[in-house]
Amino acid sequence: MTVTMTIAPAAPQDVAQLRQLYFDVYGHGYPVALGSDPEEMRRRIDDPHTHWLTARHDGADQLAGSVAVQTDPGGRIGKLVGLAVHPEQRGGGLAGRLTAAVCADAFAAGTVDSVYATVRVVTPGPQQVFARNGFQALGLLPNAVEVAGCESLALFARHADGVLTRRQGVDQVPGALLPLLEAARRSTGVGYGRPRAAEGLARPVARSAPVTAPMELINAPGFVRRRFLEHFPDPGERFFPLHLPNTVLTPPDGAFEAYADLDRSAASCSLVAVHPSPAAVAGALEPLMAAVTRAGADYVETLLPLADTAGLDAFLAAGFVPSAVYPAMRRIGDRFHDYVVLSRTSRQIDFRTTAVSEPLQPYLLAYLTAWTSTYLPLSEVAP
User: Distance between CA 316 and CA 140 in Å, rounded?
Assistant: First the structure.
């Protein structure tokens, strides 16, 4: 007798089985509230901006799989999260079917121009699922998350039809980004023209860089978000899709305020915005990193426009490494603008346990090149 697999929207009554599914797949190490916090799960199921699908065999008393796309209508972008297939159901293509179905739902709504996913690289399977569903590899994020130990992730994205043909070109970029752009061209075929290396860039940070006054860290989500909106009332000034700050970091003199999404369970932190500008943190990122590390985050990332040479330079000079480039990430008018993910980790990076597929190989080499030029300056390497 043929058993039918049904893919359907998640419902509030599925929460208990969803939690069991994520436990069966990840154990106690799943760091995302979508698969572990019942209140957050119910909120997401009821959220009109979240497309959440489940799969089950007809008549079965447990779920076979789950996946969701959380969308940011203002940023016109979605994030695929929570892709899980029960261990007993693997090998039958269910992960691919779920991915195809949830992406079809998200793009059909007409509110997103792209969908991205951060993909585990402990095995090649997840990378293959996304590649077969039209996603392109955009970079590597070393030590990005604490799951069952510290893991690196890969960034993949899929664009709606016609988006990539309406990108805004960039004439110059920091020289440290050129290997990443070449890796993207080799992996995806997406061209970045021939931008020249911008002049006047700061040299890579020395490992003995001086530390200024300790950074003050305020972790009060409600207060932080109210103040964030006061400083950035225009939605166009606060582009970091699907991230809301819950923490603000500032020096004692208040010269700047850095807004961050700090996730202690995943041991990661996203720097969402800096007031008055990203370049304002130049020279102060070392104490900022120290404060974030003390708060429990071993991995810090930020997102900047490829055209923001000053902001990129400030982070590059503080030891951040170009990790991924997201073409046509943001729509402004009728054009799309490219963005760069820069990251820094306080843990030793170990790629021996990663399964880097062919589309990710250029990014691995680009990351190693950038990391070496940042932390192993030629003047310190014996001939």
Answer: 17
